[in-house]
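does this look right to u?? nicotinamide-adenine-dinucleotide version
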Amino acid sequence: MSNVSDDGSNTTETIRSRHRAVAEEVIPDHTQLFVGGEWQDAASGDTFDTLDPTTGEVLASVARGRAEDVDRAVEAAWEAYDEEWSETSTSERQAVLDAIADCIEDHQDELAKLETLDNGKTLMEARIDMDGIVEQFRFFAGAVQTNRGQTTDEPGVSGRVIHEPYGVVGQIIPWNFPLAMVSWKIAPALAAGNCTVIKPAEQTPLSILRLMELIEDIIPDGVINVVTGYGEEAGEPISKHEDVRKLAFTGSTAVGKQVMRNAADTVTDVTLELGGKSPVVVHADADPEEAVQTIAFAIFANTGECCEAGSRLFVHEEVADDVLGGLVAAAEGMNVGDPLDDETDLGPKVSREQVERTMGYLERAREGGANFLAGGEPPEDETLDDGCFVKPTLIEGLDHDHEAVQEEIFGPVLEVFRWDDYDEMMTLANDVEYGLAGGVITNDLEKADRTVRDIEAGYIWVNTWHEMSPGLPYGGYKQSGIGRELSADTLDHYTQTKSVKYDLE
Ligand code: NAD
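got this back:
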């Protein structure tokens, strides 16, 4: 097979060679568990393969952790907490978080490439992730200093409130933003003074392992412990562990509920960042061209694998034809292909299993009477046959109670509804079990404010999407979760409150 086709575009072999060359450059040397500051095989000696979703080739074999590995990690974390980390000052922890941020900044390019290989997101998207990751560590490096106690002083009453770390926390994360989710979890946990046992998703374990290689000399042994493995084998034991004092989970609502049930047995505090099915509301005064850009970004960024994706569009009748025409053109104009290629707009989904899941929803949508305005199938391009690709898809005509509308597809699929009665539209917009995010597109401040207030969700965008700033709390209403990340509030989730009353008589 030739490396380059006659017109200079990619061939299957060009894509494979490109990916193998980058893999050679960025795959971490260590793919074991990172426990107590050491690289260790799983107790069973077992491993699992992580695949490149663009080529289907194996990137690396990674240690397959199970309950006894989790036990070792929790023990190492407590040892680190008792012997060292609990004694650190806020300034010392601030310095560690800043040093991690510096280190990531220095290695952004290789970490972004690794993320693209393991997850399939485009290199441009992975680079944007890296900026946010650095920002996370820097934000919590600063926020450390705000985590102060309080005092109560009035005649005859003297007391103080201390915010103490839990000690050892368990953290479980998904595959859609692998290293970003690491930063959302580790930065506040460490800032608040905890040690952690963290489990990355089995689909994307590589970037956290490389991060550990990079920062192992910055963090004391045992402060961060990484147990790679499958959900039921390595995640479940973390969520059931008696010595884990706090759980933080990001992933699907179904697994989040299981984690919460497990946490109930030990009455462990839990933060959950779960799924979403977020509404995008377009008012009649919206500029169609600007609306198309915002909507396309809301649904197609990161191949639709965003918990906060705008996946249900409610567009006012008056602008519907213009907006939908523009969206079809945008979807059909997207370059679906190799995420390492700068020309690519939409990379593969993370795994074959996720493609099948998405295609299953699309098939049932078709049976349910959906009209496919765009996409609905894998790309015709044969060079992409080994990868996990789905075309950007727009669907109209489904009942709002169809499962494809109610459930999270987690792919580049937008369902469209036209409206002319605001109240009826808003009833539908809120008629899902989720409440993670939402958005409104209008130039009318009054309409914007009304819709912001009416959408039942934890994060609302006005004329934009996906932008998040450290300091603005992020988290869900309804079944999208409990707790908030990205903000000083997050430190509260990683501390417990102790009141002290003094007898001054
Ligand atoms: P998932 O729930 O299948 O898996 C998430 C993590 O949980 C993985 O590490 C997995 O191994 C682990 N896990 C699976 N079963 C487990 C069990 N029984 N006990 C303990 N751990 C278990 O989700 P996913 O498919 O990896 O990720 C996609 C989901 O994550 C989507 O629903 C998405 O909306 C959600 N998500 C939410 C946010 C947010 O901030 N709200 C951010 C990113 C992703």
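Residues 85 and 274 are 30 Å apart (CA to CA). idk if thats expected tbh
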